[in-house]
Amino acid sequence: MKRKDLIRKLQNAGFSLERHGGGHDVYRRGSDVEYVPRHRELNEKLAQAIMKKWDLGGEE
After folding, report:
1. Percentage, residues of the chain above pLDDT 90
2. How far is residue 8 from each of residues 14, 24, 45, 55, 60, measured CA to CA in Å?
3. Can you point out the beta strands (E) in 1-60?
4. What confidence category does residue 59 fall into, taking pLDDT thresholds of 50, 70 and 90?
5. Rounded distance, CA 11 to CA 16, Å?
6. Of 16, 22, 32, 52, which one has the fewest beta carbons inside 10 Å?
């Protein structure tokens, strides 16, 4: 999955960029925090796990 697609899903769910980390960006929604690696392509299992964790609509 492309990183920008996952970020779009997170932002649509109410997450916003909190800060840029060394190898990850940190997105926050209230007390919810998600770390997104800085790679153009994300591992499919990782992307699916993040989407399942926040109920962002899984399989495409």
Report:
1. 90
2. 10, 16, 18, 14, 15
3. 16-20, 24-29, 32-37
4. low
5. 6
6. 22
Residue ranges per structural domain of the chain = 3-53
β-bridge pairing 16-20 and 32-37: unpaired
On the question of pLDDT at 29 being above 90, the answer is yes
Crossing angle of helices 3-12 and 44-53, in 10° steps, is 0
Whether the model clears a pTM of 0.70, i.e. scores above it, the answer is yes
Q: Which of the 8 DSSP states describes residue 40?
A: S
**Residue position matching structure tokens 């840029």:** 20
CATH architecture observed for domain 3-53: 2-Layer Sandwich (3.30)
Is residue 4 predicted with pLDDT exceeding 70?
Answer: yes
